[in-house]
Amino acid sequence: MKVVIVGNGIAGNEVASFLREHGTDKEIDITIISAEKFPEYDPCSLPYFVGGEVDRDVVFRKTLDYYKDSNINLVLDNKAVSIDSKAKKVTTEKGDVFPYDSLVLGHGGSLFIPPIPGVNLEGIFSCKVLAEADKLAKHKGTKAVVIGSGAIGIEAAEALKLKGYQVTIIELLGWIMPTLFCEGASRFLEDEMRGYGIEVFTSEKVLSIEGDGSVELVKTDKREIPCDTVVVATGVVPGRPLAETGGVACERGILVNNYMLTNVEDIYACGDCVQTYDACTGEGCMYQLKHNAIEQARIVARNILGEKVEYTGAYPFARAHYFDTHAVTFGKTMKGAERICSLDEVEAIERRNMNGYLRVLLKDGKIIGGQAIGKVADYTGLLMGCMWRGDDLHEFRENWPAIAALGSPYPWQARKLGQLLGLSALDAKGTKGSDRVKAILK
Amino acid sequence: MALKEEKVIVIDPDKCTGCHSCEMACSMKHFGKTHSHFSRIRIQEFREVNTFIPVTCQACEDAPCIKVCPMNARIRLESGAVVTNEDKCIGCRACVYACPFGAPVVNPDNGKTMSCDLCMEDEMGPWCVKACTLQQALKFVNARDAARAKGRDMARIIAEDYMPPKQDSDEFAFSFSV
B53 in the Ramachandran plot: left (φ > 0), alpha (ψ -120 to 50) or beta? Predict the structure, then answer.
């Protein structure tokens, strides 16, 4: 059996190593076609390498020897450009042809470069691929502008600040990390960021980047910022063009069924390039997160090996971390909830105390998302568990006296959850506790 | 993976008295000091109902912390324990947030996370279990035995529901004399 994997990212490698590990009884010929020159590395860790927190070799997940030892044919620096799904062949830009029995598309996305005048000047970097990160790490400058404030933008800003740059973040939308956090939490993070000495400008549009050869100035609709380094972190677009050459159906990303199979026979897809569905609410989504890529890749590998395994859906879970500020978000934000229902149906529980900030969004009593900052964030796992199981929190509140009573059969997580949501233990004591004392006195 | 002869720490919260000896033993073993903030096991206290729950890494089969770590610093050891590689960890706490129990602990010294390594290099076994010899709330047993013992306990509880109520000897005699 010939398996060709396009893309040497986390998803592609997970498929390859899973096939090697679990398909020992079968003759599998694995080829990975990579557009880059490196063995597998982790894009999540690039900002920390740029900032000098870790060494360069830490970003690699595998060494070249691994591919040799496990008999995986790795084709580097050779981009796949077209798929012939009838003849079952993949052609690369150097003209090599790879026939396949099963094809896995795991080439992820490419960076979205906004059509700003002057975006090709020297001194403009991205932080998505290792080659760019290498350049950024070597670059010497003093003033940096980060365009876009997604997870990558924030981490890149921290990295540059650690390197001694004077950093400014420009965000087009109303608040930073708009897809990850609701406005309240985001404003708090923004203030923290200013506290660390990073300038943040929201609701601003970059009009042009100017300079003679290299970057000198970034012009927005409100101000002009002199700088010598620009990092573009404006999002990732899924790699649809390759898939479309093989007649694979795409919407926002590559469409797959529950077995991660596309509409073309024997072509699977996984990772950042696919559009799947949300595990909790069921609507189509593209979260482009590492844990989803790993899970999807395992499903692909098991289906190639002949098992019939269904994917249970993607789930968003991300954390934002810079310097001493730690925040976490899961599920939907207010903005994301808008897509699935009207906002009147969404109930927000907000709590703020010395242990941090917690916000939980409920729809029909069920958790659909939340955000936390500070110490309370340690218990995000409990809330995520609730979201997964679809626990009804309205029912939970009614049951609270029974849950908080002495010797209740509920697990401790339920009691902790009540504390997190601000339900008082005294409520429970008032009813059940006194009953208990009466029972003892009898 | 699960059916290998792996040893696990089994927690029986009913027996925990909240004495925090396990925390002291853990921080003593790994850092040479007795401070609960340096312990990889912690006791979740619910004082209003006198309930104490020892919480430690359960080394999940399909561990979410391994998947979400951006630096691939969470690794599974041969013993089955899931630990943090401190050379790679950058202290982002993704593993803490993703954990269903919030089990990984942040080392106050360097901000990196740490979790139970089962004291594997120590012949004596996990120190927390030794510290709990009196209460027996923590036990270090084979994974298979743990499952079996739990099943047996559950079976006993269910069986009690179906058994005839226990009677005093007087009543017993009375019921026969009728």
Answer: beta
